[in-house]
Amino acid sequence: MGITDFFRPVDAQFDGGESEGAQISPSPQTLEAVPVPDASGSDPNPSPPQDAREAWRPEREAREAFGTLGGAPPSDVSRRRARGAAHDLQYDEWAQPKRGRNFVLREFREKTRGAGAPMAGCVVHFPAGLTPHVPQKITMSRILTALTKSQNALIESPTGTGKSLALLCSALAWQETKKAEVRVANERVAERNAAKTLAFEEACARRRHARAKEAKEKDTSVIVGTIGRSRGAPASDDGAGARADAALARELDEALAEHEKEKQKAFSFSFSNDENEPLGARARDEKVSFTLGRPDGLVVPKLADPDDDVSVHVIKNEPDSDSVPERKPFASEFAPIAPPALERPQSVPKIYLCSRTHSQLHQLMRELKRTPYAPRYAVLGSRKQYCPIGKNDEECTELTKNKNRGETACGWYNKKDAVVEELHRARVWDMEDLDTVAKSHLGCQYYAMRALHKNAELVFCPYNYVFDENIRKALEIDLTGAAVIIDEGHNVEDVCRDGASMEISVTELEDTASQLGSVAKFLDDANVAARLMRPLKDWVNRSLAESSSHASKSSKSSFKRFNGFSGPVEAAHGEALWKGDDVATAIARALAPRTLAGSREKKSGGARGDASAAVALARSIVADASRVTAFDGALVREISQNGNTFGLNAITTCHRVCAALLAALDAPAEFAACVSADLSRAGETDQKTSSTSFGAGDREKEKTEKNAAGLALWCLRPAVSFRPVAAAARCVVVTSGTLSPMGSLEGELGVSFPVKVEAPHVVPSRQIHVEASDVLGDFTAKAQDADGTPRALGQFLLRYLSRNVIPGGVLVFLPKYSLIRRVVERWRDDGTLAAIEKHKTVVWEEPGAQTLTPTLETFRRSIDSGDKKGGVFLAVYRGKVSEGLDFKDANARAVFCVGIPFPAVGDVKVRLKKEYNSSAYARSERMLPGGDWYAHQAFRAYNQALGRCVRHLHDYAAIFLVDARFARHADADRNKSMVSKWMRHLVRVFASPRESVGTLEEFFRGLEADPPGGEGAGGEPAGG
Ligand code: SF4
């Protein structure tokens, strides 16, 4: 069993379900009984006539034969062609068995579906044999309401309630329903467009005929030839008549060409789908030609050869015995002809299913394998994650610079189609399968995913991909009309703030300005970008020098002339800091200094009013630079077309800077700017603070490795990134186990969420022991640094471990890495470590991801092996262990949450955010006051940590809230009200250690004697 299998969540409620293999591969009898559904994925005919079954038998045999030989069955190809599925057309050539190609994944076969449950106008199918629980039903109904009504939703569902499965089944059921609706709507659009096309082409023909009649009356020659190619055709031998004919032909050609363009637009789809296929196919195949075969202009439409051009044939206008009596053309037949406006067909909305990390996405994909749905999907990732040869963006771009011309210098890129073909054939796959396929075909996963993304119905990606505009553009993520579902969305605030923030070092600024200068020598547009980067770099350097000289003289108050502070937060030594409107003025100072200086010299109007001209000028400079450095802009195109890569990085960097500057100039009230001599510690007044501050602990670590001087633009409100996504998408659904308080989240994200729900837990209360302990007192920052803390913590744990009260794994969460390190060192020195290791193996989390896998392996072995009775895992709040992994069953029979993880007060971003939230503006936007926001940040992280255990209906665990602020304390009730709803009413405080140990012993003994799920299991759900 791999490490990922070990920690993947399994809901015991589904233990009795079919195995994955059985779900994916029904027996041949099942195939006979359940025909493959149509392109929309709608319900297959449950009982086909006997004749049909007979007809399928040879097809099935052929399928099996081809499957054995490693090729795709011809029946699939012919069926798809018969269906005319638009998306399949482009895959058809892949679907043809290629000589010598060995497929490694099982070919896709339809799964058996259980009876669907009607819900909010859709029919939701769950995996066969499984019945959704109450929290799942609540989750599904709310998601369906949000999707069908295009409303944003906040859905809180405790961990272990089968949220992922509910989420996938309901979203895919909605998409399936939508497909059927779109198909019907598009058929009507096609009919209306066909009628308009016919009328237009009839009018063209009448016009031409009328002109011919007129020419005849003037005794000119008749027009002969195909008008579609009439420019070079001989027509009249009379000069005036020839000119008139040529003008008419030109006019009609132009009208037809314009109409043809309309048709192309109307019949081309950014998201091809089954429903659009008949329409798309018709657009390509049913090219209607018109024959003006009769002098009265009667038009006879006929189906032309699909390879022919749209054409209008005008035949020689000679008296014919069969012809009907001639008539004079009407005046209207000489009127100019305008091509009709054709309606665009609808597309089936894509679903973007996002989670925080790729490991969480892997878990979602495993759940997808269990569902009876098989959408076309892709998993977006970075080159860093996917590239098998470890190339970064720049190296990859260089290697693949010829990708539009043929073979590239990267062999993996050249074989990416084999990966795409195999995944398309398998339809249902997960990350392990993707890895296997890529290695087997030596094809590039990164570009295979980019290719699959184009026609995917479901797209998995980390949610920073959606909220970061630069990533969206780089990966061609178009959210227009899409449904965006954010799973594990408790960090959505942090991710949105990060998406609109930007940090850039002086070195990067200098390199970028210099490269743009070089590019400008051969491409004029680069001058526009250089005009932004050069003054920006100079201004940052000037500000640093000025700040440094001021800092050496006196205190931070020296910078007030830059800052214009209205609140108490000030710059640290050697830094300059701007907030609110001063951010815009600071940018204007960098980019339009003369205009700003001139405006200040004017006495009237006030400095603020005058500065607006400089801000406007700065904005236009940034907007121009943003335009020329866009991913699809002229600069990138020209460089790429020449097969070069020099300058591309500088252009990308410049575009990133532009995006942040524009956001700050448009909404300066939501930003703070800082120029610092050390970006990794920007604004820190307390240099000791690290680890759990504003955002994930890992991010903090990454930043400490920079140690570079530069400029930071910090976004203080997630709405800056969230609003554009919500505006473009059909709806955004945010789900998590810990979203409360939802009102505050709504205010931070800046959009309304008409659908909100807090689903209950499914686990009976007898399976959860919750105890608040004051043994370590108020575990404040001061207490954490106290000398005796490590020893006190060790003795507290040994109280339970030495008696072997707790079976399996024990998780201990602490507020920061530095405390973990100190605890381990002290335990080594005073023998506590050795004492604990007599009962459990001790491992601990370190910053960064490199050591996590071996640490988890050690922990797993300690639980699986017989000689030890489990392990103790010391981990940090907001780290990978506390938020990214599941510890089901014996992996976590107890969780000790030590202290409350308040963000580091030494972090200037935390102080700025508190100050911002307490401003009148933030209050008017329904955001929580700074103090409350600060507390909620702490408890979201806290609830995430304690939710690592009790992962399914039959799981059980003990949870310890180790802080006197939960026990006998004036704020105890308030603090307890902040922990997860499903367990807050279970919190108990014991009078003595003996009572605590005795109760815990009883708890585990009772569950061992009467395990959950066995006879006698029952009780009220923990959620009440
Ligand atoms: S094309 Fe793929 S394999 Fe080749 S360098 Fe780029 S990411 Fe790596």
Describe it.
The protein is an alpha/beta fold. Strands 9-10-8-11-16-3-17 form a seven-stranded parallel β-sheet, with helices on both faces. Iron/sulfur cluster binds at residues 383, 387-389, 391, 396, 399-400, 410, 412-413, 444, 446-447.
In whole angstroms, the N-to-C terminal distance is: 36 Å
Main sheet: which strands, in order across? Answer: 9-10-8-11-16-3-17
Classify the secondary structure makeup into a structural class.
alpha/beta
Query: Mind describing the biggest β-sheet?
Result: 7 strands, parallel
Sum up the overall morphology in one term: globular
Estimated share of beta-strand residues:
5-15%
Question: Which ligands does the model contain, each kind named once?
Answer: iron/sulfur cluster
- Detail the poorly predicted runs: 1-99, 220-237, 268-324, 551-565, 603-609, 685-705, 1015-1024
Task: Count up the helices.
Answer: 43
Average pLDDT rating = 76
Helix content: 40-55%
Oligomerization state: single chain
Please give the number of β-strands: 24
Instruction: Please give the radius of gyration in angstroms.
Output: 34 Å
Short characterization:
Helices cover 49% and strands 10% of the residues. The structure holds iron/sulfur cluster. Iron/sulfur cluster binds next to helix 13, helix 14 and helix 17.
